[in-house]
Amino acid sequence: MQAPNPLRRGLVEDRAGDACAVVIFGASGDLTRRKLMPALYNLAVSRSLPSGFAVVGVARRAKTNEQFRAEMKDGVGSFSRRKPIDPALWADFERAISYVAGTFEDPKTYADLRAHLEQLDSERGTRKNRLYYLAVPPAEFGVIMKNLKEAGLVASAASSAAGGPWTRVIIEKPFGHDLASARVLNDTVAETFDESQVFRIDHYLGKETVQNLLVFRFANSLFEPLWNREHVDHVQITVAEEIGVEGRGKFYEQTGVTKDIVENHLMQLLCLTAMEPPISLAADAVRDEKVKVLRSLRPMERSLVQDNVVRGQYARGYVKGEEVAAYREEPDVAKDSRIETYVAMRVFVDNWRWGGVPFYVRAGKRLARRVTEIAITFKKVPHGLFRAPDGGISPNVLTMRIQPDEGIALRFTTKEPGQHTILRDVAMDFRYGSAFGSNTPEAYERLLLDAMRGEATLFTRRDEVEEQWAYIDNVFDAWRAEANAPPPLYVAGSWGPDQADDLIARDGRRWRKP
Known about the structure:
By secondary structure, the chain is of the alpha/beta class. Helix content is 36%, strand content 20%. The chain contains 15 helices and 17 strands. It has helices spanning 30-45, 65-79, 87-93, 107-124, 141-150, 157-161, 179-190, 208-218, 249-274, 283-296, 302-308, 432-436, 443-453, 462-481, 498-505; strands at 20-25, 53-59, 97-101, 130-134, 167-171, 198-200, 232-240, 309-315, 317-319, 322-324, 342-348, 358-364, 371-378, 397-403, 407-415, 423-431, 489-491. The strands form three sheets. A nine-stranded mixed beta sheet has the order 16-15-14-13-7-12-11-8-17, sandwiched between helices. Strands 3-2-1-4-5-6 form a six-stranded parallel beta sheet. Helix 9 crosses helix 14 (462-481). The longest helix has 26 residues, at 249-274. The protein is globular, with a radius of gyration of 24 Å.
């Protein structure tokens, strides 16, 4: 049998992960209980885990293996998409779960971890392969990595490339709070790990519709020829949430929606929408094209921010018929807070494909409904042959819904039945739940499995992170120059401040209402 071409690896590959021990630092946190352990259990249900597998929780709290397993079972029972728990499968799965207690600063923690991992190599067949998951604040990264290296728990990239054991690390966002801090973090990581060993996770990239965007564009001949400035009028990308800050006031006071959503999730969606076809599905080939998009963004110079960026902050209002508090009334939020919970931007990709096409992007909390979508609006027909309501035929719109109700819809104009030529907009609507069943794998399942495989396509590279921050930093520089003026308020349950409507209306367009 012919060996697979490594350049063809990527989204097309489907195999179990390599034998390994997954070590979760910060295992007592909600991320482990709500996302990571349910994802690993679901991979076990789908028989995607390697035969040699173990998961080790590391945290400060003292607890036995049995206590940790019971906590994880409770989390899986509450948050797994596969319910109820299969008793026989869980009995087998929990034997792979163990726990090491200790502080991240204490070298003894890592000595204990090393001894435990060596025991698992013998008992579970994990082959000295290690996948470290840092489910901890960025301030903890440096001390954990330094101690891992000093304890001899990091195999070199050269060793793994030569067929020896491998070591990889998954890092959660936020990855820095500006360009300077992102570079410091990247340098800190680089002191211990080669870039090929680093997997920076953005869970949006694990969502089925986001992955399908590449397939939709590059496996179909119908739309890609139209995917350019000759045929596209504009693009809208929306990341809207009904919820507020959900008890995370202290966190949001340090970030705001621009750092929480726009700098990472939304910029990644923009890159996948605007990128050129990669030469292959190899990780770096895909990520190279995304970086080209980021480097093609028209710089948001200070003088341009006022005309191209709108902030907002939610006031009291009603969501689903219930009155909700204003952002400034949330716990741990300053009464005079100037943090934005909404942002809208007009962005231009200055390259041959997209020159002159505006990308309108927006993200916000306490909006009218929860929806994440990418909408491609095509240019109107050049000449109107038919009478149409409101003085014109609506343009065709291709919409990729990322959440909820994942799917793809195409809006076009047709004639109503009858003797009169009456035009109506209709939609072809593909829904994942209807076509493939509703039990779609969650993002963390795909991303954890890809990390075990060593497949980095859906993870962000160092230069991606730094280019994203370089672009967003200009926006914050302009806001600071305004003495951080308070953002305009918008009513909770609306679609944002009036100024956001004005931003797009100046171009003769309007926001979609999903």
